[in-house]
Amino acid sequence: MQIGMGIDTGGTYTDAVLVDHATEEVLAAAKALTTRHDLSIGIEEAIVAVLEANHRLPKSGRLRKSVDLVALSTTLATNAIAEGQGRPVCLLLIGYDRELMEQYGFQRELVADDVVYLRGGHDVLGDEVAPLDEDTARKAILTRRGKVEAFAVSGYFGVRNPAHEIRVQAMVEELTGLPVTCGHELTSRLNAVRRATTTALNARLIPLLQELIATVRQTLDEQGIAAPLMVVKGDGSLVRAQWAMRRPIETILSGPAASAVGAWHLAKRRDVWVVDVGGTTTDIAALRDGQPRLNPEGAWVGGWRTMVEAVDVHTTGLGGDSHVRFDRQGRLLIGPRRVVPLCLLASEHPEILDELRRQVAAQKCGDETVQFVISWRRPINWLSGEDQTLVHRLEAGPQSLARLTSETRYAWLLRRRIEELEAQLVVQRAAFTPTDALHVMGRLQLWNAEASRLGAEMLAAQAGSSVESLCEQVVRGVSDRVATELVSKVLEDEVGPPDWEREPSAAALLERALNGPGDGDLNCELTLQQPVVAIGAPVEAYMPRTAERLHTELIIPPHAEVANAVGAVAGGVIQRQRVLINSLDGGERFRLHLPNGVHDFEDLEQAVGYAQQVMSPYVESQARQAGAGQVEVQMARTDRRAKVAAGWGQEVYLGTELVFTAVGRPSPARR
Asked: Nearest CA to 624 among 577, 665, 571?
């Protein structure tokens, strides 16, 4: 038996599965809590748990030797960018106009604090406009040796001729031995500023992913698993860990990509909407012809627009661990803040039950009701003295937010400090969540249901309703929010992003479509044309109502709760490379732009033929380096022409784009 192991690190849980390659059967599955301060801890717990999950599998050493492939979907890159984390890097810009960059504020988009401008570069046709200033480059590199952990290199038109980028890359490797990323390696598209940003982000992530992969590899070795480790990219394909360590930026949004692949693998439906309801977020993506739809404009992460073609995903801060509370107008709010469910907190800290009972007996409802603050990681020396004192107090155990605010005259200031510490991942908040509502209703039985019921009693008293009514309202609220986000995603793709708050008529129609006309005279319905594949642990509680409101088919496949981990190990290896051909001298010559430089031809078909001759083995080699076994290569050709207004039937040649795609299954060879 040959077995693949899939691992997915989500915002709340880390899942692991074992899948039989031959039958595609899920043999075992396990979950562990994601440890965001150190993802490797949760990954290790999930690996150990899944190896012991199915007693019918071969024991111990035999099972471990049967695992011939391990695939990891990780939130590390996405989280690091969103939270501004990363190691110090130097960004070397070739041929960029410094004054222009500063005048129009482009330098603020470069991510890196240490930016060096070098003379040199090429024009849009790939011709050199100035020789590379190697002396300045050498001094800049040597000056930063020992002060940065990686370098990023971007030429203004480096994608049209990467010669200067390649030369500076060689200098960095020769003088420092540090990792170095070039812009032309990550994209073939123009937009020099965004390309420089993407290159700098990649360089900042390299040390972080190297550390994670090293610890995961160590865990696998300790468990006696010698299989190669692969990582899921943002388009759902797989690459060997060594490849991912050079291009970690390509792993952004790997979680949503893995969920889309897992949905296809489990449901076997080619054209569907995939809704992944997790603990922290709900992700919505489209499968078209069995493939995740990609965003050709590049993925947005943490306010940065990258040039990475990743899955086109719509993400909203709604999940099983979303904070449930009422605003001052008595409206029920769910999310977007993620908190620790009361039931989970009480299972780890049963002493909080006494505080919850005290709050219920006191019947004092306020903004801090049934909320706790807990330490997440050890305090950092840059925290203020007051913050250090607070965090040290939390290390003794969870503290009631109501009690903390009652001990100071400046409750508003304390609340703000706690919010800042949350943003810095130093502390976490615990409160009532949809997961707690399901525990009260008896639809989940994972942790301490008494804590959930006590929290529900307080919120129900605040709303003037019964505990059961409150919990049903929460579940309905999640279902309707998912329906709203699905409608928003469809409209965003087909018309433009809706703004429900500024479009009251549209919001009223949506409300009537989901919940009926009420006292009004106008009713309407919405029908989602494609089925919905729902994945995630709690989808059976939420998604039937969502599908009913949108009059569409709902598919909840087997093992929906670990679909992301299944998607991680079910993906294939895909490598794409775009090359361009432009005309020179009014069509007298044709210039081919390749990853290693430019080549000129007198005939267009000669240029295309040479590109096929060079690029087919090139992308095949890339796919094999990325971990593929048998590889197939295809080329797609697009000739761009425009009709001449004054000429009858005449056309002007604008250029040719050739896209080479190499596809293969992961090679399960031993390390």
From this structure: 665
Amino acid identity, position 539: V
Residue partners of 372: CB distance under 8 A and separation at least 6:
340, 342, 345, 352, 355, 398, 399, 400, 401, 429, 430, 431
**The tokens 């005309």 sit on which residue?**
583
Of how many residues is the chain composed?
A: 671
Cβ atoms < 10 Å from Cβ of 603: 10
Instruction: Supply 609's token pair.
Output: 């033929």
Asked if residues 620 and 628 have their Cβ atoms less than 8 Å apart, the reply is no
pTM exceeding 0.85 = yes
User: Of 411, 451, 418, which Cα lies nearest the Cα of 432?
Assistant: 451
Neighbours of 213 (CB within 10 A): 21
Angle, CA 553 vertex, CA 552 and CA 556 arms, to 5°: 135
| 332-338 vs 322-326, strand pairing mode | antiparallel
Beta carbons of 201 and 111 less than 8 angstroms apart? yes
Q: For the beta carbon of residue 416, count every other beta carbon within 10 angstroms.
A: 11
Number of neighbouring beta carbons within 10 Å of residue 205: 28
Q: Mind giving me the DSSP string for 353-371?
A: HHHHHHHHHHT---TTTT-
CB 263 within 8 A of CB 300: no
According to DSSP, the residues that pair with 128 across neighbouring strands are: 122
Tokens in use for 218?
């160590």
Tokens representing 191 are: 């937009």
Mean pLDDT by 10 residues, the chain (671 residues): 90 90 91 85 92 72 86 87 85 96 90 94 95 97 94 97 97 96 93 95 93 92 93 95 93 92 94 93 92 89 85 91 90 91 96 94 79 78 77 88 86 86 84 97 94 96 93 96 95 91 91 86 93 93 96 96 94 94 90 94 96 97 93 96 73 93 82 47
d(CA 314, CA 490): 10
Residues 6+ apart with CB under 8 A from 83: 302, 425
**Beta carbons within 8 Å of 189's beta carbon, 6+ residues apart:** 159, 195, 307, 578
Give 13: exposed, middle or buried? Use CB within 10 Å, 0-12, 13-18, 19+.
Answer: buried
